[in-house]
Structure formats: structure tokens, C-alpha cells
Amino acid sequence: MIPKIERASVQEIKAFQEDKLQALLAYVNTHSAYYNRVFKENNIALETIKTLDDLTQLPVTTKDDLQRYNDDFLCVPKTKIIDYVTTSGTLGDPVTFALTDKDLDRLAYNEAISFACAGITPDDVLQLTTTIDRRFMAGLAYFLGVRKLGAGIIRVGAGVPELQWDSILKFKPSYLIVVPSFLLKLIEYAKQHHIDINASGVKGAICIGESLRNQDFSLNTLGQKITSAWDLELFSTYASTEMNTAFTECEAQQGGHHHPELIIVEILDDAHQPVAPGEVGELTITTLGVEGMPLLRFKTGDMVKAYTKVCSCGRNTLRLGPVIGRKKQMVKYKGTTLYPPAMDNILNDFSDVESYVIEISHNNIGTDEICIKIASKNTSEEFQQNIKDHFRAKLRVSPKIEFHDFKTIQKLQFPKMSRKPVMVIDKRTEA
Ligand SMILES: [Zn+2]
Questions:
Q1: Structural domains present in the chain
Q2: Residues 231-254: pLDDT tens digits?
Q3: C-alpha of residue 349 to centroid of ligand 1, in Å
Q4: Whole-prediction pTM value?
Q5: Residue limits of the AMP-dependent ligase C-terminal domain (predicted)?
Q6: DSSP state for residue 98 in the 8-state scheme
Q7: 115 C-alpha to center of ligand 1: Å?
Q8: Contacts of 267 (CB under 8 A, 6+ apart)
Q9: Ligand 1 center to residue 104 CA distance, Å?
């Protein structure tokens, strides 16, 4: 089930998207108070925006814009809204996304082709181990996608390894939809309860929220840890509420495939210009076919690299490599730059590290400082030195290491109202 447009030539895909772009510009000009105003204020003549290269004539949309003018982005009357979703905003208050009936159909299509991309068929049964409620989009998207694909779904929800295993053994799902580090918890539970995980029938996992791969697409520490205990095919996915769209790996596992019927992709530098092919830049997206809250040149804040070489699966669409990090969380440290996910990869290597947060701050001479707060039963000087040595060897940085009790770290990870654990505390932005 590969959509025809994804097998089309690069030129055909571009022409197809340029057509869709015209429709989008006309739509937001008429229905979005925000974009209508932006076009007017910037004296933009929409008839001059014809190709994807013309996009650079349009201003970008930031997370702050979304938060400040949230209601102005809405293109439909309230009576047309079916589902309300929120994301945590950068300025504090959550940003609301409204989905119409048509948007839910689009979401279902998106997820169905993403599952198909990972090789899932109508004969498969998927177990959902993530939240479907709490104003999240992801869980709902998975449910709709599985239904559209004609596969089966077991909605267990987040946490509770006991119920997860009860469901796996009872219903024999072939895939799990899961945050990768939760797979480690399932492995641990199975060990304690003498469950033979490799006889469970689960053959793969659709993974969200955490990176599984290094930049060369080999499995990172977390990915290796999982597959060394459990013979699973791991598929990375990358998605966000703002995009309404997922990038999912195919069986080649060489980056998440772009679905050109759903989204326009730009990889931009700080001046909002495209980076050179193969360079790292900020993923910037324009949604196609969204009715409730379409976005134009939305800067996601995620730093990525795009791959355009034809994929062995037959799709001609570009692929996104693993997210290198959040643009805002870039750490400048003695001439090198790095992002927190690189540090996660090192910390995941130590089984004695139970939990941690990474704190980034400015020191009094104006450079960045990294402090890693760790909960561990082993708080020896030797262990601390061992962690530091790994950081120096692999990342050429030497962070401060502090040991704290598990509860303290949990408190830092789950501030009030937070739905996802906070792994990075960036004190630089508080100034
Ligand atoms: Zn592929």
C-alpha cells in the first residue's frame, strides 16, 4: 500500500505539492485571521508564490506566534470542531489545536500509511501502550490509523506492565506502539515473572518519543539494549501535533519517510533560508489538507538532516534522519556544540543510572555549563569518574555530576501539569 505519489519522480512530487500549496494559500487567506493579517502586513501578493522555492518569500510561523494568536489560526467555526488537542506552549499556556471531521480522516490516513510503511498489514494486531486521552493527539491518531488500515488494536494505555503483559499473552499482538524506554520496563517485568518474551509473538515495535538510532541509522544504546533482550524489529517514528503528520521508517530503516500529500518540508537555517543539501537545519513544515488549523512554514524547533537518495522500498520521498536535538537546547561548550540527546545516549549506557535530568545553565563567564543530576544506588567516586570519562571520550565535554535520591529526580522530571517527563532543564532561557 504505497500511495502513487510516493513512487512518483521528484519532479512530479514537487509539481504535485506546488498545486496543493496554491490551494492552501487561498484557503488560509480566506479563513485564517492570522495568515490574512500576515499577508497584508508583509504586502505579499499570493499570485507570486507559485513554486516551493517561492516559499522563502513568506514569513515563518513560530511556536510563539501560535501561542500568542492561537484563536486567529482557527479556520472553521466552533460547530465544525470534533476533537480538541493541546500542546505545551513555549510561553507557558498550552496551545489548542482543533480538528474537524475531515482532519480526523486525514489523521487516520496519515497513520494508516505510516503503519503500512513499517510493514504492518490488516492481518496485524497492535497494542497501544501510550495515552489515548489527556488531550493528546498521538494515541487517537494511532487508533484511527489502525482502524483505517483494517488491523486490530488493544488500547491498554500508558504504564502498568502487568496489564501490558496480560494483554500480550491473551491477545497475541504482533506489534507494540510504545515509548522505547518502556520496552525496558516490559523486559524487566517479564524477567521477574518468568515470561519468555521471545515466545510472545510480538515481532515489532512502533516507537515514539525517544530516539533509537545514531546519525548513521545504527541502533543507539537504548535500541541495542532493547534488541539484545528482545528479538524485535524497531521502527522509529517522528511526529508532532503541529504537523498532524508522521515520518515513519520503512523496512530499510534509513530515516522516516516524508508523505508529500500531507506536508511540505523545508530544512532551514537561522535566516529562514534552506540549508545546503545534506546539512543540518531546523525542520520547517507546511501542512497540506488540514481544515481546522493549517500551518504555513512552521518552525518546529527540531534540528534534522534530510536524505534524498532513492530508498530501496520504492518510495521516492525524502527521509528525515533521527532528530539531533531541539534548536533551543543546543549547548555551546568550549568550541563544540552538542544537543541533549547525545548525552542521553551516554547515560543510557550505565545500568546503575536509574533516572536523571540534564540541567543546562550559563556560568558567570558567559559559557554554557552542563550538570547531570542522577539517581543511582551507586554513588561512589569511581562511578562518577567513570561517567565523566565517557562524556569526555565521546562528546569532548566534562559535565558536573550530582547524585540525588530517586524522588528528587522524579520531582524534577514531572513538574505540575506536565504530561511527559522533562529530561532537560534549560536555565539559560529563564534570564
Ligand atoms: Zn523506504
A1: 1-325 (3.40.50.12780), 330-430 (3.30.300.30)
A2: 999 999 999 999 999 999 999 999
A3: 29
A4: 0.92
A5: 335-428
A6: E
A7: 13
A8: 274, 275, 279, 280, 281, 282, 283, 284, 304, 305, 306
A9: 26
